[in-house]
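User: Predict the full complex structure for these chains.
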Amino acid sequence: MRDIARHAGVSPMTVSRALREPAAVSEKMRAKVDAAVREFGYLPNRIAGSLSSSRSNVVGLIVPGIRNSLYAGMIQAVSEVLRANGMHLMIANSGHSLEDEEAAVAAFLGQRVCGLVLHNTTHSKRTREMLERSGVPVIETGNLPDDPIDMAVSYSNFEATRAMTLHLARLGHRKIGFVTLPLRDNDRSEERRRGYFAALRELGLPADDSLVLEAAGGFSEGADALVRLVNAHPDLDAGFFAGEVLAVGALFECQRRGWDVPGRIAIASYDDVDLLKHAVPSVTTLRIPRQEIGRRSAELLVQRLQGAPAERVKVDLGFEIVQREST
Amino acid sequence: MRDIARHAGVSPMTVSRALREPAAVSEKMRAKVDAAVREFGYLPNRIAGSLSSSRSNVVGLIVPGIRNSLYAGMIQAVSEVLRANGMHLMIANSGHSLEDEEAAVAAFLGQRVCGLVLHNTTHSKRTREMLERSGVPVIETGNLPDDPIDMAVSYSNFEATRAMTLHLARLGHRKIGFVTLPLRDNDRSEERRRGYFAALRELGLPADDSLVLEAAGGFSEGADALVRLVNAHPDLDAGFFAGEVLAVGALFECQRRGWDVPGRIAIASYDDVDLLKHAVPSVTTLRIPRQEIGRRSAELLVQRLQGAPAERVKVDLGFEIVQREST
DNA sequence: TTATAGGTTGGTAGCGATACCAAACGAAAC
DNA sequence: GTTTCGTTTGGTATCGCTACCAACCTATAA
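Assistant: Here is the predicted structure of the four-chain assembly.
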């Protein structure tokens, strides 16, 4: 920057200003600076800028698994909002482990991110301490926390699962199996299980533990879970899968066995991905506004950074049941 | 850090060393520092560290679309290798536009990333200039570039498409349609198209332009493309889709119309995602080592940062044909 | 003409770490 | 006891930028 200033015949201060708030600098100066910047292809060092101003323009995002296409829409939305505001995104993987989350939070705070989005609402003690002490705006998402650290943007896993279970009963299904993703260290899965049982109780249906199966999230696991459920309960008339891959895996299994869906068994899924809409038959599911969650999260962060008061915000973006051919 | 030093009764220099290279500090000092660090929950400011040492531990990754699950495996692999080496990942979206890529590169260089991975091998003039001048290690991927900026890790889109087309012919298919993703600003798509025609020429089959259809990457677009191809060429006996979503969209369309696959028409896809393996029938496809590409890219960057000589490396990780039920 | 204000420009002092060299220390050799 | 060498510790300058305030314009009003 010193060089640019020299070559433009102005002070470094003027260069800095011309780049950050062009309006505060006379047209003549701005032209000189711009010319020199272009000539030398100068790129301001944001590291130095951040250190000096103790402001940064990087937001950290921690997701349980980058690989999971579920988060892709949310990540994209966050990324877009940030970019529109001249900010950047760093991503880390917590792999469903609270320790890894803690490490990622520490690393991000060390990088002095200006905001954090955590796809998780239960944290280790040290994670909460670090976050609270840092004063960095935090968004929690993935579930609606009882005691948010700062801000939360999500939907209720409990209500969503409950609603779909009631929906299946309304369609006449009496024996509804539920296949959940692993429950360990995962409050979302736990909430969903609770929602399922709450619905059964309301319906006066027997809340049989053997109707719930835990499965890792692959196609074969979905197929396998379906088969095990049907073997244990030959009168099963609906399967509700807490993940689109599980559901489609089960659907494929039905195709292989020649079982009519929904004639022999109905299949319902979680999350509205394109695949479910185009599958044959198309699959009934819960639409979770993933992108909207990402968008709102980023917007709340941006607002806070632009001076909005630091108040605990809790946004429930809801969900929707999408009835299709499979139920 | 000054505070920590005071409370530990040592100099700031010793704190800095105790944190970065514990071996260079006596046990006594290290213990004092560690105690103070723990007591105050001190997190070193990496921004200041980077500025001072003019080293950073952040790698930038630019992909055409975060949303596309294709890149997810690669991103995950990059992320894991970096984390294992104490580094971090920033992600940006180029949305298939060279201007957006240029903006992202400028932003990342401004952030003084220590390495860059670009999922693209054609760039704007200014992008190349910036990268070359910056001296930052760069990996290009997604295709094998003729004139790499620095390092390249990929496979050959041309060879892969050619090989699958030859494979379909070997299975007895004579009239093979090809559905490509949009060609604009996308050298990968262009290479694939070339590979397809090269195979037809080798086979002595007529290279009919109307056998190639351009389609955006959705399920309906795949279904639609299949229908249009069959209408134009009633004797079409195979469809090769340059994207798994397109292929499965076409497969679903066959199911809806009751067309036997591969009896009435064979379907081949690009990229080996789980969906293709579990679909009914399972789909023949090209296995592209996406994860391996991510892993190698990150490893090459890490090696370079650890002092490996700055030589132009070009790694071809190849591909594999996965023959399944659909052909 | 001088005072006053508003708008620009420049100088100086950090931001919080690390690089580099000098000082202090301790152990081994004489 | 002194010298010497190697290791550990500390001081100072600096990384490249921005915050803050002082100095300087130019124009308008008194």
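Chain A has three domains: 2-44, 55-155+290-317, 157-287.
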